[in-house]
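Lab notebook, entry 79. We have the chain sequence and a SMILES string for zinc ion, and the next step in the workflow is to get a structural model of the bound complex before anyone spends time on docking refinements. Request logged below.

Task: model protein plus zinc ion, output structure tokens.
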Amino acid sequence: MAEYCYCRMLVVERTAWTEKNAGRRFVSCVYSKRGCKYFRWVEGPICERGREVIRGLLRRIENREEEKEIVKTQRERKP
Ligand SMILES: [Zn+2]
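Result returned:
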């Protein structure tokens, strides 16, 4: 069934990547950045175990990104 937000647009499904709700899906307005506050969780709270796993994965990705940045700056420094 179609779901519409306050400005009568079809809502879009997204995934939250915050510490508290990592991986939890929600729907919101396409124009949420323009001020439409429509918001609804699609699923219940993530279980503690799942949250831990996702948090660990996120941290791993962050570390990778940092490593990449370091390698990049080191490369750029070489003549
Ligand atoms: Zn809207």
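Notes for the group: The chain has one domain: 12-77. Worth checking against the assay data. The pocket of zinc ion is lined by residues 5-7, 9, 29, 31, 36, 38 (CB under 6 Å).
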